[in-house]
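Hi Y.,

Following your request, here is the sequence exactly as I used it, all 337 residues.
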Amino acid sequence: MSLCGRFCFNFHVRIITDERCAGYSRAGHPERPARITDTLARLKNQAELSLTFDEPGRITDAQILRAHAPEMLARLHTPHDFDADTPFYEDISTFARASAAAAIDALNIARNGENVFSLMRPPGHHATRDQSMGFCYLNNIAIAVLAAAADFSPSPPPTEERAGERRQIVSSSNPLTPTLSPLGRGEGVGFKRVAVFDFDVHHGNGTEAILLNQPGLEFFSVHQHPAYPGTGAANRGRNCFNYPVAPSAPRETYRATLARALADLKNFSPDLVAVSAGFDAYVRDPLADGTLLAEDFYWLGQSLRALNVPFFSLLEGGYSRDLPELIFAYLKGVEGK
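Below is the corresponding structure, written out as tokens. Let me know if you'd prefer a different format.
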């Protein structure tokens, strides 16, 4: 059975999470532990969705350094705030690495055609190759996407004939060698064409900067503009496509823009879709002027499922007290309810 075949009939969602990611905070900061703890409580106290919960594994420096400069990793240990929005916390390197590890695990689960959502903090899509910013310390989605692309090999490993038996020769150094991820999922099956779909209300400037003009990768971002971080007004390079929406634009306009971006993404014919799932375009989110409702996030989940392409979702923004209900609505769409 093909990867898509397994995926298309999967009515279950795996949640990657770790309550220890609620272990840092600063008074008054909107990126707060309750984003995770309240959502986790909502998901564990419901019977509509078939969910399982996994903790993230570990991530290597080599996986991180595909997306980031070595100096940026070192900077995570320097006890000074990164900017006015991005404080230094004790052990922030550990928290950031766990969130990035969850992204790698989500990728590996998606390889098997399973539905998966990473419910972790900190978020990642504002972090550039050499700068932590906008509540983000490492760019989780860029790290995972570059891992997916790095594993792709344009030709199969060599074969040999023996007594009428045809078999593949796979050495331990071959990038397609199966290994075991921390969640027991096979790694090493790469993807030739990978799309990133970012529906956070704030432009994923870091993801764009890291993926700019990378062959086989395309970035599609629907976001409010003007808004933080001030980027995303127009397309960039050969592979970064931006769909700005004016502050307080009618809900119908916002949803039509999302639909247009998804149609363009579908025309790219990706083998894998990585989703930066931000829920701050919600009408009552305190950090932006979006107009979406819970049912629109349900529709987004449905629409991504309808692509019939393996995909994984990572939590980015979303700062209203209704975040647990918004994520729940999205997961209902993803699961096909």
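Residues 81 and 127 are 14 Å apart (CA to CA).

Thanks again,
Q.
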